[in-house]
Write a structure and sequence with these properties.
single chain; about 200 residues; alpha/beta; seven-stranded mixed β-sheet
């Protein structure tokens, strides 16, 4: 995303600061049985998912290029008495200072070629034996979301951009339609969910 996109989201968070809500329920299901360790949330927004992980004992870093979102995330952490490190940075260019046991991207792929760059960042950030979870609107939802054809990926496209990982889950799930076009018979919306693991390289 470019500077214009960053300005758009900063202004959006300024206009509607009360965007903090609940963590993604699909993500909560996926992490329920994982042993807490280090985690990074790429495109964390106001920090709902990152703080959910922090509340479960994870050492969490949240990353978002919208500085206003980072401010709100830090305030939410303070209000909830949770510890998390929130950083204003672009997920397409950020260089991870370490590798993490868990990497998550939830509704935060920036679209087009930059989605591939964000997934590459996720690959760099993932430790051996670590888990990557990607949750995003499926590309079948592009028109409903008001996006172009290349702005959203299919499950297959996400998987194709995760070379070297063991794919544990790759499926489309349905949620209640949040886009207000139920009159067209679309009461549900499609969500792409991919869970993968980085194999441990064993020395001889």
């Amino acid at each position: 995303m470019g500077e214009t996109d960053q300005e758009f989201w900063d202004e959006a968070y300024k206009q509607e600061p009360d965007q903090a809500g609940v963590p993604d329920h699909f993500l909560e299901q996926e992490v329920a049985e994982l042993e807490p360790g280090t985690a990074v949330d790429l495109g964390c927004g106001v920090g709902d998912n990152a703080l959910m992980l922090a509340g479960r004992g994870w050492q969490v870093t949240g990353l978002d290029f919208a500085t206003e979102a980072i401010k709100l995330a830090n305030q939410a952490a303070h209000d909830k008495g949770l510890i998390a490190d929130f950083i204003a940075a672009d997920t397409t260019t950020w260089q991870p200072p370490q590798q993490y046991d868990l990497v998550i991207i939830t509704y935060a792929l920036p679209g087009g070629q930059k989605s591939k760059q964000a997934l590459n960042t996720a690959l760099k950030a993932l430790a051996q034996g670590g888990t990557l979870i990607v949750i995003e609107w499926d590309n079948s939802m592009a028109a409903a979301c008001g996006f172009g054809e290349d702005d959203l990926m299919s499950v297959e496209e996400i998987v194709a951009n995760l070379p070297g990982l063991a794919i544990l889950r790759a499926e489309v799930r349905q949620v209640e339609n949040p886009f207000g076009n139920e009159d067209a018979g679309q009461s549900t919306a499609n969500v792409a969910l991919v869970r993968a693991q980085k194999p441990v390289q064993r020395s001889l």
